[in-house]
């Protein structure tokens, strides 16, 4: 399909910016916020055309999986474990999703997975390097 980036692969957390300000802004409980700080999350993306399975593996064995098709409403789960419905769109090679209280984009840039979440002007950026 036109404009589809190759997202498929496994990516390991490398660094982030503005984490504390962002989790405060979205009201993430402090225990969850602590867990996620500098967390070596491994993100695994399986892509089949416009169908994606996006799994985050947390240290300690917890995983979160969101499956979606670009342009169709899907059941999703937030960082904090809340369930909601969202339609993921593809804009300029980026995946864009509106979560309940933030907007999330993901793109492959320089071989890395770059995810940006924006909530009321606070921009949280997470970079992960490809490991598989």
Automatic annotation (TrEMBL):
Top-level taxon of the source organism: Eukaryota
State the family named in the UniProt similarity comment for this chain.
Answer: Belongs to the calycin superfamily. Fatty-acid binding protein (FABP) family.
A family per Pfam: Lipocalin_7
Q: Which residues form the Cytosolic fatty-acid binding proteins domain?
A: 9-26
Keywords assigned by UniProt?
Answer: Cytoplasm, Lipid-binding, Transport
**In the UniProt record, which is one GO cellular component term?**
cytoplasm
User: This protein is called what?
Assistant: FABP6 protein
Q: Where in the cell is it found?
A: Cytoplasm
Record organism: Lanius ludovicianus (Loggerhead shrike)
Under the heading InterPro entries, the entry gives: Calycin, Fatty_acid-bd, ILBP
An example Gene Ontology molecular-function term? lipid binding
